[in-house]
């Protein structure tokens, strides 16, 4: 009987014991590599560099081994004046071609030079990290979009290619829906002599502050004239044209995005291009009418001035008849009287 009572008591106490044990374990015991990395970033920002080194090292051991982790670990080593370890970590980060081309590469090189001037050298990894290798660089959406921007630039430079579609839009912009853009590009060229180009990116590319500046840059680098460029992302739409002011073109893109939405990105892009060119055509027509009107007024005034001048000359000659050539005017004789 006592054995059964003891067993029941143990069973009842087991959940509480497990909860107590869980609370005594370190918080990072079940953390993933990403969590360790974020903890390291937070610790470094707070000036807790030893904790940051621990977390970054754990991130590497948990397979979060992209160059960014090596870079942050190297900086944390440097704050602790572990010059050899800093040199090793920064050299590993810079060995990745993607990282060496990133904006952080300049700072990493400066930190590496400083560590080497302080006496650091690459003597290999610290204890426990002997088997850690640098993995591929993780790109954020803006960095990935920057790569897409370059691809779009290469494709759109061909006169035969009116659009480029990034992976983010593969399911939405199909061959059938892409025909909408091709038709729009053909119509705009035939009816308005305007080239249309479309790009679908996963995000606003780095380093552009907004999608409108990205569209303007793409237009400029394509070196097109009498054209419109439309750029679509999952969050925004932008347009730029040399036939219409940049503010007006962007206003049209924003208005179309609100009314049409992104359910059919190809239809949205085609509608934006058509609306921009339609407004540009209307502006050109109005300008032509104004020019003709002004020219007509100027010609009318000029004709009126000529007519007035002719009338004035005619009146003057009527009041002052001219002398007949060869017939002398007879003067009365002097001193003769009747």
Give unreliable regions as ranges. 6-11, 13-30
Radius of gyration, taken over Cα atoms and rounded to an integer in Å? 40 Å
| Assigned CATH class of the largest domain | Alpha Beta
Shape assignment: elongated
The helix tally amounts to: 12
Return the string of H and E elements: HHHHHHHHEHEHEEHH
- Overall domain count: 2
Q: Could you give the order of strands across the largest sheet?
A: 1-2-3-4
Q: What is the CATH architecture descriptor of the largest domain?
A: Roll
Quickly describe the structure.
By secondary structure, this protein is mainly alpha-helical. It has helices at residues 2-24, 33-45, 49-61, 67-79, 83-94, 97-100, 105-117, 141-156, 175-192, 211-222, 246-260, 265-319; strands at 163-165, 195-200, 227-232, 237-241.
Describe this structure as you would to a colleague.
- It is built from twelve helices and four strands; from the N terminus they run ααααααααβαβαββαα.
- The protein has 338 residues and is mainly alpha-helical.
- The chain folds into two domains: 113 residues, Tetratricopeptide repeat domain (Serine Threonine Protein Phosphatase 5, Tetratricopeptide repeat); 140 residues, Diaminopimelate Epimerase, Chain A, domain 1 (Roll), CATH 3.10.310.50.
- A four-stranded mixed β-sheet has the order 1-2-3-4, with helices on both faces.
- α9 links the parallel β1 and β2.
- α9 packs parallel to α12.
- About 7% of the residues have low confidence.
């Amino acid at each position: 009987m006592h054995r059964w009572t003891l067993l029941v008591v143990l069973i009842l106490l087991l959940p509480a014991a497990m909860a107590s044990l869980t609370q005594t374990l370190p918080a990072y015991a079940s953390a993933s590599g990403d969590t360790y990395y974020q903890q390291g970033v937070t610790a470094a920002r707070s000036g807790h560099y030893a904790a940051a080194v621990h977390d970054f090292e754990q991130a590497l051991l948990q397979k979060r081994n992209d160059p960014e982790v090596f870079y942050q670990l190297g900086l944390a080593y440097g704050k602790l004046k572990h010059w050899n370890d800093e040199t090793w970590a920064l050299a590993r980060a810079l060995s990745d071609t993607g990282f060496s081309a990133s904006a952080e590469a300049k700072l990493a090189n400066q930190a590496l030079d400083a560590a080497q001037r302080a006496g650091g050298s690459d003597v290999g990894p610290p204890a426990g990290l002997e088997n850690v290798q640098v993995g591929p660089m993780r790109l954020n959406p803006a960095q990935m979009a920057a790569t897409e921007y370059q691809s779009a630039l290469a494709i759109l430079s061909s006169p035969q290619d009116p659009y480029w579609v990034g992976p983010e839009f593969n399911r939405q912009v199909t061959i059938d829906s892409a025909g909408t853009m091709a038709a729009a590009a053909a119509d705009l060229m035939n009816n308005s002599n305007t080239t249309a180009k479309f790009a679908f990116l996963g995000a606003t590319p780095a380093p552009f502050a907004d999608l409108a500046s990205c569209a303007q840059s793409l237009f400029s680098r394509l070196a097109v004239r009498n054209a419109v460029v439309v750029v679509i992302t999952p969050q925004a739409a932008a347009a730029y044209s040399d036939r219409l002011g940049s503010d007006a073109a962007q206003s049209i893109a924003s208005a179309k995005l609100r009314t049409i939405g992104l359910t059919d990105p190809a239809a949205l892009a085609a509608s934006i291009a058509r609306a921009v060119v339609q407004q540009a055509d209307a502006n050109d027509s109005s300008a032509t009418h104004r020019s003709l009107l002004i020219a007509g007024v100027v010609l009318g005034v000029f004709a009126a001035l000529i007519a007035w001048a002719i009338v004035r000359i005619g009146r003057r000659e009527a009041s002052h008849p001219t002398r007949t050539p060869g017939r002398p005017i007879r003067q009365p004789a002097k001193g003769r009287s009747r």
